Amino acid sequence: MYRISDEQRRIRLGRRHLLAPSVRTGSVVAVADAVVALHATDAATVYLSVCARMTEPGIGAVDHALYEDVSLVRLLSMRNTLFSMSAEVAPAIDASSARPVAAKERQKLLKHLREDANGLDEQWLADTERQTLSALATRGRATGSELSAAVPALRTKITIFPGTRQETVQGVASRVIRVLAADGRIRRDRPRGSWTSSQFRWTTAAPWPESDPAEARTEVAGRWLRSYGPATEGDLKWWTGWGIRETRAALAAASAEEVLLDSGAFGWAAPGDLAAEPAPEPWAALLPGLDPSAMGWADRDFQLPADHRAALFDRSGNIGPTVWWNGGIVGGWAQRPDGELVWRLLSDIGREGSQLIEAEAARLSAWTGDARVTPRFRTPLERELTG
């Protein structure tokens, strides 16, 4: 069986994820496609992840892709998480991952409605959705608060988990909007405030055309292997949130080739993607929390020393801002309230590595300007550095 070393996996990451300076790009869409999809739970992450991989980083290019030509779209998809991906990749991710998530979101909301003492049902939800879409079409774009003001039904309160210790009263507006967004009937438009804000306005949208889920999973698996392979079956299962049967079927349909990894585990590579690659030039990167280069695998041992984990992850398993050197995670970084970028190395990488990290920090500071970025998921090292 062909063996692919951890060093080769790190070399592939630097080149395929567009992190080495010689392979950076001027296209936002090319960045998204290089990593299949960008984590978008934290609004700032999309900008930080894209600009780390661009020859000329800047807010304007990402804004244009998200809100002008909409070549970059957001979907609640893998692992019930918000991702941004290119419009070309979106139909496959929609069919393979977003549709099942949307169905579960709708069923969850309907369950809460039926359990409420007001006796709300599926017809009430359909009527409320129709009124919400009509109000949004009239306004063009609106925040959740503005939609609630325009649609009285959105101001309805329901009791969640009645009769239990978790019983609480909540408004339905955010839940109805979440279901409409998951169904692809509305989408996030420009936020109120800067690019770091998550207070989005909403606008109407058309759902993606239906396609065969199995074919879509095959396409997604193939793209993921070309970006993240070689990797294990467990890595793909974790990244997508699919069941084990769907994962194995997708790997087989994508003609994945089995390889041996340095860990002794069996991995999978894209068909014909076995040859060793030359290392790019030495490179460093400052990547944001939840960046795809850190979140592409369940098993990150080839890039992340075990003794770094406690400092770089929160209690839920979310990775914070990271410092990279030649495909490995060697530290973490943060931005202080006064705007200063600070970092701490957890590995000794020598003078050349330290100098390149300083250059990347200067590059990051130059395009972020006066913006202040605080990760939604804060980690021990990030908190310590900002304190």
The chain-level structural class is alpha+beta
What does the radius of gyration come to? Answer: 22 Å
Give the total of beta strands. Answer: 14
Strand content: 15-25%
* Gross morphology: globular
Classify the helix fraction into a percent range. Answer: 40-55%
Count of DSSP helices?
15
Specify the biggest β-sheet: 4 strands, antiparallel
* Order of the strands making up the biggest sheet: 11-12-13-14
Order of helices and strands: EHHEHHEEHHHEEHEEHHHEEEHHEEEHH
**Overall structural domain count:** 1
Parts with pLDDT < 50 across at least 5 consecutive residues: none
Terminal residue distance: 50 Å
User: What would the average pLDDT be, to the nearest integer?
Assistant: 96
Structural notes for this entry:
There is one protein chain. By secondary structure, this protein is α+β, with helices and mostly antiparallel strands. The protein has one domain (34-211, 281-387). It has 15 helices and 14 strands. The chain has a four-stranded antiparallel beta sheet with strand order 11-12-13-14. A three-stranded mixed beta sheet has the order 1-9-10. A three-stranded antiparallel beta sheet has the order 2-4-3, sandwiched between helices. Strand 12 and strand 13 form a beta hairpin. Helix 5 (90-115) runs antiparallel to helix 8. The longest helix has 26 residues, at 90-115. The termini are far apart. The mean pLDDT is 96.
